[in-house]
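Thread amino acids onto this structure.
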């Protein structure tokens, strides 16, 4: 990111590392819609010559003097969120918020990201997970943010066993939320979206009903399909500020609206007063930032190893070579109809 609205290549020194950190070379990189929000919407403010990227699989080049379990040559899963595990927030159970709100989000926010020949990871022993031999770097790249965020949406929604859930937005994160809802025990899963390639994967991941805004008001369709009650949980995985209105209208009393959407524009977000029960309908809004850390990545990898989910279904475009990261990034910006997620593979 050269500045808001502009990207390009930049030459920098190889980054230095602290005693608990690791220096990495990328094996696979995936651009994210968050990168688009950051550059073209200025969502986190002005940044100059900031290296983008927070979705990567890497090989360890060098480790700090205090690193005990990670060694040079290890192929590792690098979470998008790399908390400082000794902080008060982490000890209170909010590791993604370490230091400041969203403080666990360091890559392409507080420091240079992974779209480079070299990048670093703080607290390597606690943030990096060894890449299993049975998972390719490209597939594993879907775990670090897409799966972790989408699954968090289902976890935060407290979906009752056999309950119903609506997932608003079926990009890569929304599709991951659908799979997460299925793994959490949801019986009926409404997938809200129109992109044909995403509809196919949503059904493969567990969606039972497809809702299209082209067929009428989204919330009215969901409420009607549930006998006037609404769903037990709603996961917001895309859309602009007004998506909150659809979510609250779609939710039954005593439900949780779980937001995993990055609202990149606007100063305020709307809540419909009547449908929110004038603030008293027990329709709770739960937010969160993608969980990171070694244990989270190991557990997501186990879901792949033990055949409970297939991350490769999210990948629609593959590129080879770091020089093609710009084309992949612009794909995320332009979002052609056949796109879910692009990945750039770098030779080991």
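Threaded sequence (348 positions):
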């Amino acid at each position: 990111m050269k500045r808001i609205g502009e990207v390009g290549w930049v030459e920098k020194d190889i980054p230095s590392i602290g005693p608990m950190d690791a220096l990495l070379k990328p094996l696979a990189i995936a651009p994210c819609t968050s990168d688009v929000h950051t550059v073209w919407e200025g969502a986190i403010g002005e940044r100059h010559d900031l290296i983008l990227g927070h979705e990567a699989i890497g090989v360890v080049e060098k480790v700090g003097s205090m690193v005990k379990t990670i060694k040079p040559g290890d192929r590792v899963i690098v979470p998008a969120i790399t908390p400082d595990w000794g902080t008060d927030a982490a000890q209170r159970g909010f590791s993604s918020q370490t230091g400041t709100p969203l403080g666990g989000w360091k890559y392409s926010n507080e420091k240079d990201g992974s779209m480079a020949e070299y990048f670093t990871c703080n607290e390597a022993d606690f943030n990096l997970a060894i890449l299993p031999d049975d998972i390719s770097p490209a597939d594993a790249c879907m775990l670090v943010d897409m799966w972790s965020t989408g699954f968090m949406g289902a976890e935060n929604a407290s979906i009752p066993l056999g309950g119903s859930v609506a997932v608003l937005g079926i990009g890569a994160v929304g599709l991951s939320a659908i799979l997460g809802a299925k793994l959490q025990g949801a019986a009926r899963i409404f997938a809200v979206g129109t992109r044909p390639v995403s509809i196919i994967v949503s059904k493969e991941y567990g969606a039972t009903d497809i809702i299209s805004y082209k067929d009428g008001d989204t919330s009215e369709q969901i409420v009607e399909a549930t006998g006037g009650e609404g769903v037990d949980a709603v996961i917001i995985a895309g859309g602009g500020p007004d998506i909150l209105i659809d979510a609250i209208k779609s939710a039954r009393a005593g439900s949780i609206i779980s937001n995993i959407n990055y609202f990149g524009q606007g100063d305020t977000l709307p809540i419909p007063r009547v449908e929110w029960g004038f603030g008293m309908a027990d329709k709770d809004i739960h937010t969160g930032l993608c969980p990171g850390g070694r244990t989270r990545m190991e557990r997501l990898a186990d879901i792949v190893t033990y055949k409970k989910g297939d991350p490769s279904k999210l990948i629609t475009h593959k590129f080879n070579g770091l020089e093609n990261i710009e084309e992949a990034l612009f794909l995320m910006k332009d979002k052609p109809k056949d796109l879910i997620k692009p990945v750039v593979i770098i030779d080991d």
